[in-house]
Amino acid sequence: MRIFTFEKNGQPTIGLLKSPAAQEFIDLEIAGYEHCHNMVTLLGQPHWQGQLGKILSSAPANSIKPMAGLKFLPLIAQPGKIICVGLNYADHAKEGGHAIPDHPSFFLRVNTSQVAHQGAMIVPKASAKLDYEAELAVVIGKKARHLTLENALDAVAGYSCYNDGSVRDYQRKGTQWTLGKNFDDTGSFGPWLVSSDELPPGGEGLKIQARLNGQLLQDGNTSDFLFDVKTVLKIVSECMTLEPGDVIITGTPAGVGYARKPPIFMQAGDICEIEIEKIGILSNTIANE
Q1: Could you report the per-residue pLDDT of 207-254, keeping only the tens digit for each?
Q2: Which of 136, 164, 254, 278 is most exposed, with the fewest beta carbons within 10 Å of its own?
Q3: Into how many domains does the chain fold?
Q4: pTM to 2 decimal places
Q5: Which domain, by its residues, includes 41?
Q6: Closest C-alpha among 259, 288, 93, 280 to residue 189
Q7: What is the three-state SS of 239-275?
Q8: Are residues 216 and 102 in the same domain?
């Protein structure tokens, strides 16, 4: 099952893809679904997959719309938390001159840093060093605390793509990464959520790539995580309560722009694509602030 957020009459509305390769979707508002304007609320419903499954099999004809011309919004515009894992691939840690960690590093993103599929990621006035990072996003589907390795994946609603755009010089101005990871409109999220039942447990074994203007720059696999999804969820939930709609960004493989010689940074007019096997392609143009 694949659901996404788009703009309709000036407000967010949730769409349901007819099938993974479909060019049509079901407008959940027209289909009569009560929780059709807020992804966090939808994911908090205990039986949302069953409810949407019924709509998928018997949607009224007038609710079926073409994908062409849609204006996507960030998959979850206002998640309660966006928790990011740093240095979760050994090859990326090495290319940045870091030791291989024995415990995951975490940092937070803010909602204003997010941009939608097909929207523009923005090179800020303050810096020209906007870098790409292909990452698997984990979306939480139920309230959870003190998860174990055995039950952690029960808290996952599904998975998506994320481009954890990073302003590298600001990321390195101090020992914390917050500023470099939170410029407005630098983190792209989407295009849709793929429910966890359609993917391997923990999103394991999925090819993950970044392309800039068609050039393949990152080519990794989630099987190379240093800390897999269930381990990350267990550790995070030791500290804080996870809630429906929270997002966990799981780290990026080697090949980022700042580590290249010469470095490659995204510039106005570029097109950056993040592709994750069995999920889809997250595509963005690049523009100047």
Answers
A1: 999 999 999 999 999 999 999 999 999 999 999 999 999 999 999 999
A2: 278
A3: 2
A4: 0.96
A5: 2-66
A6: 280
A7: HCCECCCCEEECCCCCCCHHHCCCCCCCCCCCEEEEE
A8: yes
